[in-house]
Every structure is written in structure tokens, then in C-alpha cells.
Amino acid sequence: MRILPVILLCSAIAAAQAAPPAEPAENLSDAPLRVTVPAGTRIPLVLKHAISTKSVRPGDPVYLQTNFPFAQDNRILIPSGTYVQGVVDSVKRGGRVSGRAQLLMHFTTLIFPNGYTVTLPGSVEGTPGDDNSKVKDKEGTIEANSQKGKDATTIAQTTGTGAAVGALAAGGKGAGIGAGAGGVVGLATVLLSRGQDVRMEAGSTVEMELQRPLVLEEARVTTTNRDLVPVTRGQRLERPMNPPPGTR
Description:
This protein has 248 residues and is α+β, with helices and mostly antiparallel strands. It has helices spanning 3-18, 148-192, 218-227; strands spanning 34-37, 42-47, 51-52, 61-66, 70-72, 75-78, 83-92, 102-111, 117-126, 133-135, 142-144, 199-200, 205-210, 214-217, 228-230, 236-238. It folds into two domains: 32-146 and 197-228, Type IV secretion system, VirB10/TraB/TrbI (Lipocalin, Beta Barrel); 148-194. 29% of the residues lie in helices and 32% in strands.
């Protein structure tokens, strides 16, 4: 009878040794803290190269940079000088008789000075300072302004030139004939010419709007702000490393 308890005890010990060790519970504190930039936030950008509906094609990349820091809750989340990459979605040149030039692009990537890269859901909200085009819809389509005034000026100038030449050649009657001929030439020039292109020079300001919330890792953003110290003339230098002991 004494053998049975011993056998049961040995069996329990063997079963305990054979069972796999319990995995430790996941340490939730290891998950990175995140901060969110809300949808609808507008961020000013500067274009790094010229683009025009005359030369760009769908799929071409667009490169920009933030020119003013974005702060939230008393801390900078997106510092000035952060790179922004976008892509051209569609291009439409101005028509010869009707139709204005249009350019549509969106933003895809945000690259912080420390290399931290995130996907960016952004569109064009405005083009401040651009007198030749404007944003026409919520998708961010940039459209060239109407040039009806310019066309009228072209016709008026050719009409006036024709009238002057006709008057010199045949007096008042010639002036009328010359004016009519000049008007025809001006009208033909307008009809055979394309409408003006959308062209944005390097350094042009573009206002970006976030279409969805932008989620950032707090530690990566904090590192970006801590490792960059402002110096004169708008430059930024990385904070110098401490020298080895005994070298001071």
C-alpha cells in the first residue's frame, strides 16, 4: 500500500517537468507611445523644384519641405525642414479654344531629419501667392486662371496695328480695312494658341491638408527635436557628442 503513493508522486513530478514553461505575459509598457496629428491639419510646404503641366506626367515624383514647424500640446511634432514626397496623379494642358490647364497631385511620405519615415495621407489645399492658378476642388486640383482678358488684349493690339498700317497706306478707308484684317489675325492667334499652363517655380508655397489622422511614434519625434539645435541663418546642426574623458 505504501508503493501506490510513491508511484503517484513520481508521476506528478514527471508530468510537471514535461509541461512547457508558461510564457510571460506581454509587457504592454514595451509598446511605443504614439501621438496623433488630426485629419484636416494644414501644413505649409515649399516646392523644391519647378513643375509645369507642359512637362510633367502622371507618376512623376514631387519633392517639398516644411517651412514652418507644426506644434501640438506645447511640443513640436513636425519640425521645419522635414521632407515631403508626393506624386503627380493627372495632368491636363490648356485647350486651344476652351479648357484650362489642370494639375492634380497628392502627398505620400514624410521624412524627418533623423530619417524617421511615415506614410502621409495629404492633398493640396491651396497655393498661396500664386497669381496664375488656384485650387478648384476638394481633391486638390490646381487649375490655371482664365486668360480671357489676355486674349481680348491680343485681338485689340492686332486690330490697332492693322488700323494704323491701313491708315498710312490708304487713309481712313485703309484704316477700316486694316483694323478688320488685324482683328482676324488676332482672333486666329488666340484660337491657335494653347491656354496657359499651370507652372509652379521652385520655392513656391503649397499648403498641404491631412486627409486622415497622422500617427507618429512619440520617441522618434522627440529624438528629432532633441538632436537638432537651431543656429544662425536658419541652419540646423546635430548636437555634438560629449568628448571622451580626459580630453577636455
